[in-house]
Amino acid sequence: MKKLLTGICMLMLASNIGMAQAVDTEDSQDTEMRENPVIEDVEDDMDEVVAVPSYIKLNRNHLILNGANWNALHKAVANSNKRPMTIVHIGDSHLQADIATGHVRKALQLDYGNAGRGLVTPLRMSGTNQPVDYSFASTMSWTAAKLMKWPWSHTMGFTGTSITPNQRQSHISLSTGKDEDYNPFSAITLFHKGKLNVTRIENQDGVPMMFTASPSKDYTYLQLTEAVDNVKIYFDSAGALTLFGASLSGNRPGVFYHTIGNNGATYSSYNRIGNIGQGIAPLNPDLVIISLGTNEAFGRRNVPEFISAMDRLVKSIQSSNPNAQILLVTPMECQKSVYSTVSQKVRRKKGKKARTVSKKVKGYAVNANILPIRNAIIQYGRDNKVAVYDWYEVAGGNGASALWLKDKLFGADRVHHTHKGYHLQGELLYKALKESLN
Fold this sequence. Notes:
This protein has about 450 residues and is an alpha/beta fold.
């Protein structure tokens, strides 16, 4: 807030002494912020019960089904005490840290049962931030590829993160939290391209475990004889091998809530991978949620291209997952960097004339590209009978970004929320989802 006030004061001063028209440009710092975000803490972040501000439009906190038939989803919920109901949520940096989505996962699993942690990916091994409730690690040498660092040195998987061992014999360690996030698993699905032969699995004490391995085209399914929260998997690879992630299952009913989040991601960047729908098909999704659009708003505005990219991803998912419903989420209002050229007279020594200097002053303004993207998602949902969650409107609509910033729900970058803000977003999405699922 101090930086914001300083910027306002400088702009007010400039208006008195002469200022050129503000220049709205894409800032390299904006790009860095979106691809390598810092999620800020506030004093009461640890308290997940966040008071709902008055500008949150609770009367709009509902899914817009647009004529989509969710009967199969209702049956999946009703039968979740017999077989897992599966949700796959795809998005950008708002999802990668898994704060809002982690809140939704916990809430739904409290209601319907915890089928397991679900999808975990080697984000930290790829040099980026990773959710705190699991570990995906190795002491061996690997080559990593990330979604936004294109072209890729190796095959990119549907998770947006890929790692390739630099030796034929290697291993990975997978673990889940033991405290409130305790999530024992007794089955592991390793997603990969290339031949993978699992030779040994050890528990956290280094004791070998009995297991069965069932290889398939795009994954290897491992069934353990007991539930654990920490394993080391040894394997051989013949030829090129790339790992994309793993799904951890407790072999019990309830809910899986898989999150695929990549900093800086767009509809187009996921489409670049290839058939995303085919990639997520082994997860057997009942519902696929897509939360994208923020990063598109920082580039050149081209709504037809955005709609085309959105349609391609939706069609890919529908083609390979005909029984899954899709929910599109609109991005909320955010801000971007703007620069103003300020002319100011500088006094010199006595007897010499004052001179005028110009400099650029960085400030922030509402990103005007967000609203057209939000409107395009709303219209696409109507035209194609695809459900939409209008987060833009629920969060407060026009002017929401300044209010979220004032209440420390937005971080200083004016794009990402604080932990407190993500907990609020997660709670609102959970309530809207539960209403429609029931």
